Every structure is written in C-alpha cells, then in structure tokens.
C-alpha cells in the first residue's frame, strides 16, 4: 500500500492472518524481534504495531510468555435491544451477574423527567454488573416505573435480567438511546475491574411500552471489552 507506514503494514498483515483464520484465537504471534527481521524494521516499530493491536483488543500480551490472538470483543447492536445474557450465550460463553443494589428510592429530578413521573415519586432502582466468562462487561443502573413493573424488586436477577423481566411484563414498543465516551468514575471502575478513568462506552436508554415509559437505564461498558455496531440495508 503506497506510503503506508511500516508499523501500519505490520498491523495490516497481522489482521489479515487473523481474519483469514491462519492465526486462530490464542495463537502466539511472532515476537517483536521476529517481526522486525521479517519486515526489515526496527524493534521499536514492531513494538508499536503489537502495542496498538493490543490496545485495540485484537491481541493480548502475557508477561514472560508472549503475545497472542485475543478473543473477539463482544459486540452489541445500536438497532436492536437484546438481553445481555442472550448475547453472552450466543457466543458460547458463560453468563453471570452480581446485584449491587435493588431498592425503592425517590426519583431524582432527571430520572423523574425521563420516566414522566413527578419529582420525588417512588421508583425501583437496581445496579447490576453483567459478566461474560466471569469478566465484567457491563455496569447497569436502572430506574423502573413501579406501576408498569410492580414485582420488579421481587425478581431474582441472578437467574434473569431486568431486560428479560421487563420484556415479559411491559413489552417494548419504543426506545431512546444515547451513546457517549466517558472516563470511568471510581465506583464503576471498581465494579468493572478496570482502572479509574479508563475509557468506557456509556449508553443512556429509555424504554417505553404501550402503557407508558417503563425504565431509564445507564449502561457502562469497558472500552477494550465491548463495541457497538449496526448494519443498515437499503
């Protein structure tokens, strides 16, 4: 490729090997020294290629062992509201969760507006960490309208998810979604087992049924462990 930087050529080569299936998940990729020799570049250039692919989640490095092809980063859809447990199971992985809070609270002003309820109205509040093969991939904080999901607090969210329960009792007819990049605050970072201020993907989602606004949720994903995509056909 004309005028392509040498480190970019190494990255492209590695991606091609992975995408073609020549280098499967957990395959040990050539070392910095080997790549430097193969491409006629400095070790620093080879290191940059490996480091960037590691930061992008394509590779994973194990101290003292080498660099390996990482498992694909879990992906969600911007155009579809899926149960995260189903997403994990579809990848052939094990889903689990940890309930951090499950309570009734007075709705803060922002939440009351989102749910079209009076300020200080009583709402159900939950914070749950969702895991893929024991690795935290989503911190979910949700405020739910009690009149549309009266048994919310009685649910065992270690065996089901708020999404699955709400889909049964108040089927989704509309969803408003906003996506933004944030730096993880300390409590969220601790729950997700990442460093404070790590880059994260944050999703605000308000869901509605035919009877009214059901819930208002904040979903936070570690940037290196999750991605969003969409496919449009015309």
Characterize this entry briefly.
With 234 residues, the protein is an alpha+beta fold. It has two domains: 6-69, Arc Repressor Mutant, subunit A (Orthogonal Bundle), CATH 1.10.10.10; 75-229, Chorismate lyase-like (Chorismate lyase, 3-Layer(aba) Sandwich).
Topology readout:
Layout: H1 6-19, H2 32-39, H3 43-55, E1 59-62, E2 66-69, E3 75-77, H4 84-90, E4 95-106, H5 109-115, E5 122-132, E6 135-144, H6 162-169, E7 174-183, H7 186-192, E8 199-209, E9 212-222, E10 227-229
Parallel strand pairs: 3-10
Antiparallel strand pairs: 1-2, 4-5, 5-6, 6-9, 7-8, 8-9
How would you characterize the overall build of this protein?
The mean pLDDT is 89. The longest helix has 14 residues, at 6-19. The chain has helices spanning 6-19, 32-39, 43-55, 84-90, 109-115, 162-169, 186-192, and strands spanning 59-62, 66-69, 75-77, 95-106, 122-132, 135-144, 174-183, 199-209, 212-222, 227-229. The chain folds into 2 domains: 6-69, Winged helix-like DNA-binding domain superfamily/Winged helix DNA-binding domain (Arc Repressor Mutant, subunit A); 75-229, Chorismate lyase-like (Chorismate lyase, 3-Layer(aba) Sandwich), CATH 3.40.1410.10. A hairpin with a 2-residue loop joins β5 and β6. It is an alpha+beta fold and 234 residues long. The strands form 3 sheets. Strands 4-5-6-9-8-7 form a 6-stranded antiparallel sheet. Helix content is 27%, strand content 34%.
